[in-house]
Structure formats: structure tokens, C-alpha cells
Amino acid sequence: MALSVENLSCGYGGEAVISGLSFDFEAGKVLSILGPNGIGKTTLFKTMLGFLKPQSGSVSIDGTKASSLSRKETVRLLAYVPQSQVVPFSYPVEEFILMGRAPHLGLLQQPGPEDREIVHGVMCLLGIEHLAAKSCTGISGGELQLAFVARALAQRPRYLVMDEPTANLDYGNQTKVLECILGLAQDGIGIVMTTHNPEQAFILESQVVLLQGSGEYLCGSYKDILTEERLHDTYDIDVLIRAFTHEGKDLITCRTLPKCNCKVGRQGARQ
Amino acid sequence: MSRNHPPTQSEAQTRRARLMLPLLCLALLLSVAASLVVGRYSIGIPQLVSTLGSLPELVGRIAEAGGVDSVAMSNEERVLFMMRMPRILGALLIGGALAVAGAAFQGMFRNPMVSPDLLGASAGAGFGAACAMLFAAPVAVITGSAFLMGLVAVTLTYLISLSVGRGTPGITVLVLAGVVIGALFQSCTSITKLVADPYSQLPGITFFLMGGLSSVTWRSVLVLAAPISVGVTTLYLLRWRINLLALKDDEAQSLGLNTNRIRGVVIVLATLITAVSVAVGGLIAWVGLVIPHFMRMLVGPDHRWLLPASFLGGAAYLVLMDNIARGLFAMEIPIGILTALVGAPVFIMLLLRYKGGWD
Does residue B165 carry a pLDDT above 60? Predict the structure, then answer.
């Protein structure tokens, strides 16, 4: 039971955005994909989900080549959680989550009581059952993100693909979403997520794929990949990574070290 | 439902929608009944009842004679069965169908200013009809030509957006192309008006384009019924999928939806409905825009309720409007003008009430 990407090249038209990428990871694990803006994380996701054809190489889900699966079959195994965004209609949260049942229903079929049971179960799992009746347009960003996660879980997938699950969330909600990710991994769901914050890879103790500007990529455990030098090379900033012990557990944390010799400080922004 | 937790708002909304549908049915029935008495030839209610009672006997006589033309009818019978009934049915079908198509389009394009003729269908159909009238073609040819040009206009819109969007038609490009093609066909219509004979042809074309149901016969009801029942039924069968189309494309695709195919189906159906409506009743604006909007306030955005509510509401609305069109003044007012006169202020009122939000 593993999701594997083998020697994958993907992009739009003839141009490859990512080339020769390989990694695999098991259900029940978390994989963080890190890299600068515009490096091709979204393109990679679209290719994994089968919306874009790989230019070469392949994606396999539990040993089956994704290219041989229909879109419906793919999304029953691999559910996508987009960045939390405004929902255009004021569907009640419950109906919104119910949309996750679509891959299991025929074209003209309507969701039935069993589908509602599944949705109810998913909402209880995430602790958002009290939102069922509320309108999607009337809940907070953090609640909406959880609703997106719930909708993906209603697909009953083995893997979740999450696009910056903590983007636009406040500090507390970010941590709640990370807690939710850890819980889901314990339940045996594999999670691939992009993040702009290496600290989250440390918190989740996840596997890491680091896409570097030079077109190279590194993958492995967060401890091996995320070093001060590599983060410096990738993002062109200084990063401090420190290990410490808290209540008997070895933890690692990181923070950035902003330089004080930036132009703004020397020339005076107000002149 | 077997769950034993308190009813949620979505269930409350569903309940309200369930309550609204019978009410809308009732409204439609009432407006149809009222329409039977409205008109230049006055038929009182006792007369109406007795004439309606003679319907089975009349049907028997028609069957015996093998055709309507050779059957002798009283004035009441002729007015009621040969003029008012087809006209009411025509208004009902066109109003309901335009509102359903509008509701589907608004959901799909995530935009309240959308009507079923967004992609140029009615501009094309109007041009087709005007062209055929220029050559003094028979009614069947006018209808066919309107329908054909409606399809041509939407196909052009679609092809343009395909070539701009490199294979995947983006919504914005599609809508922009629709506006351009609509404008193009409108100017073509103006050209036909310009070259038309100002005494024998121009009035006919002008009145046709203003919209009106005065020429609706049983034959035109038959022309309407087939495409409209196919269109409306298919849209209703797709009701839950249309909910999903309101999501962003990549999101809907990640739920296993073939968005391009379903969008294509919805566009073809809405075009079919619009083109056939224009072919029979001329340009009847605003029904497909205002009614779905109004119904969304009553039953919520879920197309499982919104589509049937729109059909009933649209049908009742157009039947009532047609009554006003033929009953208000001695001269009949073109119904397209009436629907615009009523629709535009109502829409502004809705906008003000919801301050630009539309859920």
C-alpha cells in the first residue's frame, strides 16, 4: 500500500516544470512537499490526480498505474483538498461535504441515506458536526478548511493530497489542522501536502520532498533533508534549526534569521 | 431519515423547499385557470365550465371527422380550445423551460447576471427568424431557421473559446465570446431589418423580435413540447451534478466529475430550449434571469429544489404576463416588452435587498 511517483516529468504543453522526480510513501504517513513559489507543486498535484498527463514517468497508487485508472477510480483512492477558498453558493456545510460522495455515485444518481451516514461520521471525526446546518459562506476560514478536509474524507480515500492546508489560517487554526493531519495519518490515511513553512514538517515529523530552484529535488526524512544549508540554498535566507528536549521527547524546531542589512533599512523607506 | 439528532438547517431548508413546491404548483394552476377567462372575447365562469364540460364530446367529434378543420365549433369552443389553451400551454412551456435553463446556467457559471441566452442563442435565433421572414418563408421554415441559427451562434461561441483556451474552454472566455457573438448576430438582425420591405415585412419582423404568443397554435405547442421536455428532464436528472459544477473546475474534477462533458451537455440543452422558445415566441427576455434568482431566495441554492421550483415559477410567471399582455389594453402588448418592464425593476430590487450578495 503505497503511493509512488517514478521518474515523473510534468508540465504544460512541451515544457517540463518538474522532471525526473521520484518518491514513494506509504498510507499512514505524511509527506511534505517544500519549495519556492512557482516551482511546480500545483502542477505536480494535478499530474498525480490525473488532470494533466505525465510527460514521462508514472504515478502508481497501491501498485496500479494511475494512467490505467478512470478519473472516478483515481479520486476514490486519492482525494484532493484545495486551498480553503470562498464557496460560490451558500450550501449548508452538510450538503457541501456530501459532494465528496460524487465519485461513488452514478452520473444520474442522487446521494442517499448511506451517503448521509458517511458524511455524518466524517463530521463527527473532525468534530464539526455542529456546523452541519450552517452555511458555507457563514463560517470561519478554519472551519471551512475542516469542511474541505471532511469533503475529501467523505470520498473514503486512501490518500489525501492537500494544497497548503494551513494557508490563510490564523495561528490556532493552523495547529488544529496539523493535529487533524496527524490524527488522520494514525488512522492509516496517507497525506501529501505542500507547505511554505518547514516548521510544519518538523511538527508533523514527516517525510519531505524538497524541490529546489535549480531543478533538483531531495527526498527523505525531515531530519536528513531539512538542514540549515539546504534551506538557505532553497529559499536564499538564513535559517536556524535547533534540537531540544521537552518532557523527555527530542524535538526539533526552526526559525528564520532575517538579515539586518537589507536595502530598506539602510536607505530609509520614508525618504 | 433514521438519524436521531435534532433537525439541521439543511433539513429545515429541505422542508421549506418541499412546502414551496406544492405552493408553486397551486400558483401555476390558479394562473392557468385565470387565463382561461382573460381575453377580448368575454367568457363568464358558468360558460367556461359548460364549455370545458363539452370537451370530451368535442374530442369525439374531432376524432370522427379525422381533423380539426372540418369540425363545427361554437365561438366559445373555438376561442377556448383553439386559441387560449394552446397559447397558455405555450406560455407555460416557454416560461418554465427558460427559467430552468437560466437556473442551470447561473449555477454553472457561478454568476447571477447569467441568462440562458448568455452564449448568443437568442441573438442567433432572432437573426434566423428575421432572415426567414425576409424571404417570406412559411412558419415551419421560420421556426427551423431560428433554431438552426441559435445553434450556429452557440457553436461559434464555443469554437472561439476553444481556440482561445487551447482545448479547454475557460468560463470567462466562453462568456466574453458569447457577448461578442450575440452583438454580431444582433447587428446582422439590424441589417435584415434595414433591407426588409418597410410595409410588408418590417412590421412582422419587428413584432416577432419584441416577443409575443398571439400566433401560438397547437402545432407550435407540439414543436415546443418535444425539445423542452427532453431539455428540462435531462437537466432535472443532472440536478445534483449541477451543484458540483458550481465549484471551481479543478475541485469538481477532483470529485470525479467530467466537467467539460457535463458543461457541454448543459450548454446544448439550454441552447435547445432557448432557440426553440425564440422560434415560437420571439425574444422573451429576463424570465431566465429573474425567476431562478427569485426562486433561489425561496428554496435555496440546491438545484434539486431550485430546478423544479424554477420551472413552476417561470411557467406561472409567463402565463400571468401573457394575461396582462392580452388583457390590459385593447391592443396586445408584446410580451417581451412586458417581461423586461417587470423583470428589470424586480431584479434591481433583488440586488438592493441583497446588497450584491446573491445567496
Answer: yes
Q: CB-CB: which of B10, B256, B304 is closest to A94?
A: B10
Residues 47-106 of B with CB under 8 A from A: none
| CB spacing of A92 vs B246 below 8 angstroms | no
The pLDDT tens digits for B287-332 are 998 999 889 888 888 999 999 999 999 999 999 999 998 888 878 8
* Residue B214 per-residue DSSP state: T
Taking CB atoms and an 8 Å cutoff, what residues of chain B touch A132? 8-10
- How much is the pLDDT for A194? 93
Measured between CA atoms, the residue of chain A closest to residue B1 is A113
| Grid coordinates belonging to A154 | 467523505
Is residue B267 over pLDDT 70? yes
Residue from A43, A53, A97, A99 to probe the interface with B (highest B Cβ count within 10 Å):
A99
In chain B, residues with a C-beta closer than 8 Å to the C-beta of A117 are 3
- Please report the pLDDT score of residue B73 as a whole number: 78
- The answer to whether B289 and B347 are in contact (CB under 8 A) is yes
Q: Which of B10, B243, B300 sits opposite A133 (nearest CB)?
A: B10
Smallest CA-to-CA distance from A157 within A166, A149, A168, A145 is with: A149
Which amino acid would we find at residue A124?
A: C
Instruction: Tell me what ipTM this predicted complex has.
Output: 0.83
Range B234-243 average pLDDT: 93
Which residues of chain A fall below pLDDT 70?
Answer: 261-271
Q: How confident is the model at residue B359 (pLDDT cuts 50, 70, 90)?
A: very low
A-chain CB neighbours of B113 within 8 Å are none
Q: Distance between CA A92 and CA A116 in Å, rounded? A: 13
Nine-digit cell string for A67: 494512467
Out of A79, A102, A109, name the one closest to residue B257 (CB).
Answer: A102
